[in-house]
Amino acid sequence: MAPSRQEGKGKSRSTESGSIILSIDFATTQSGAAYVRRNGREDPDPDLIESIREFPDDQLPRHERGMPSDQVPTEVSYPNPEASMSFMAIDVESDDEESDIETFDIFQNHVIKTPAGGHPNNSQNEEGSPPRTDSITPRSPTLDGQDGSNDEDSPRPLPDCARWGFECQRWPHLRNVTAESRIRNTPVCFMKLMLDESKVTEDIRRKQRKDLRNLRMMLLDESGSGRRIIERYRDVIVDFLTLFLQHGKCQLEIHCGLQDDEASEMVFTVPAIWSPKACMVMEAALMEAMDKARLIRAADIFMVSEQEAAAEFVLYDIPRISRRNTFILLDAGGGTVDAITLVVGATDPLRLEREAVEPDGKLCRSTFLNEAFYNFLSSTLHPDDFEHPEDFSPQLDGRIRRTLHDVIMSEGVMGAFETVVKRRMDFDNFRDALQWFQIDGLKENKARGSTAGWLKITKEVATFPCTCEYKKMFEETLAGVRAVLASQLKRCLESEHIVVDYVVLIGGFGGCPALVNKLDKFLKTVSPSLWHTPIKLHKAKPDQSAVAVARGGVMRAFNKEKGPKRKLRLSYGILRHESYDKEYAGHKWRRGKNVTRCRVDGLWIRSKKWKYDMKKNSELFFVSDQPVEDHWPRYHAKNKGKRCQAIGTIEVDVSDLRNEFPIEYPEDNAHSRPHYVIALGITVQINDRHIQVSAEYGGQILPGSAKYISIASAFRPGTK
């Protein structure tokens, strides 16, 4: 994981009473953030929590939403309007990864002899041997399927060509962009699902890997170094979060008076079902993005589950909620629709005790509505419906000025459908729902309900060819969400002593009146027959359902007491070069292959061994798992599959100590040269949710050596 660039003198870094709390909900389709300034308050006030807004290129008229959007599409793209036709030769549907790589190299100016499997430096030598380059850098899954080390010495910069959020939805539709470049400019979506290891998302993740692999082959650093812009799955997440946090920082400076040196707190939310590895990669991406965005340098990092954050926000105003109450949290988001049954463990503050039954999930996500709406308009619109149908045909230079895809995916059509129409759909008041879509150049057609530049869909337009299909696509998604809830209720019914008291509805689609009405009617029908008591449906306010997780994260950070017990889920240690010692079996293994001379003092060293000081099975934390083998290379079979990865480095300037030590001159050892031998003490200790590392000499911490590295992901979400 990337280190936190923080320095101090060993004191506790608790958040100050006047600091800002920023909570991020990195969601599958639409992400959001919320913030509040403490101002000495000990208890959260939901009415004082604000959302990050005014995202770049959010051009949907404000009167349609009432205010700027509090969510932004979780998308990132790397457009290049000068891209040549050559990249179109790549078979994006090919299952032959080696063929894709070879095809890519043919069409590049900087030809890289890439072995099948990825980066030219990632090829394995002999079994158990490391790659040719082996830097101690944060590691996450690479695009070639390896466990992934980023074999670059320099930190990866944010690509200048990166676009994010609403920019991704608008940029490809500008008139001066070629149709060919639109292929490359297709945004990376659903990137959060790359961290989801469930079977429900397996097909999506497989397609994502293929798409990202092809995108990686198209993108080279413009510096001419031959370096790929994308090397790891995590890179696209880092780029999105960096741009997201850069915007968030500007908003905090404007609306909250954020100062560069202000002590603040960063909260990030994760699904409760995520593995420790997924949480670790997410935290690493966030830390790297925070560093690049220069946001809240002195921040405390707090990780909380999305379910607990949402419950904290939605259940805040529910009277008479008591310990042992059981509720189903139904998350109707843009990715999967998930249902999880939770038991209230404490009410002051609200804490969730456990999952009562196995959760349910299904790919009846609301983005299926987007796909259905796309197909709906694709079968309805035709170039002849526009004032300039010739724009949809190739020009003399081979370019196409406009496509139906561009029309449908524009902010006035798909953007309006995603952020307004879909979330306000109400079949009981269909006429009142917003069904106007702005389409530039559309001709008037009263028979179909269109006026100049606008397409209208209402009950009144009986002649509209696909009105029934338009309603049907909503019904299919609503039925899918209801099926997930029904399955979870069935699990509860089959388990002993589980009585569901509430259903809490959240997610970007959770505020849709059509969905609320359907679920409410369903619960009123089934609950008396199941438990002879009504099950109440609770939801956030219509304008807050989509950001309930982010706002709940802020509230959860106010009071961290009575959270999970502090038990490490990960092991931490030191990766280092060690002087050769025949007493260690790991040093004797394959001598001559991994034992080299130090160019300074001429001593034999065994390169890059793991020395673990804080293991999951140590007495300090009372937890057990497979320990990592000390003094063995990280690529050896003994440590294979144990997901060892570096989380940071410490750099020490010892120039001022040169006068205190004599120069060591070589005697008979021709392999050494004049050098200094300076003995330093490295102190490593856990402080709250951080590892505090510092270098000491003579009992004093050397200036610039103290560093805090967040390990929030090492504990269960919500741990103080």
TrEMBL record:
Here the segments flagged for biased composition (Polar residues) are: 120-140
Q: Which InterPro entries match?
A: ATPase_NBD
Residues of the region (Disordered) are 1-23, 54-80, 112-158
| Source superkingdom | Eukaryota
Residue ranges, compositional bias (Basic and acidic residues):
1-14, 54-67
What PANTHER family does the database record attribute to this sequence? CELL SHAPE-DETERMINING PROTEIN MREB, HSP70 FAMILY PROTEIN (AFU_ORTHOLOGUE AFUA_3G13740)
The name on file for this protein is: Uncharacterized protein
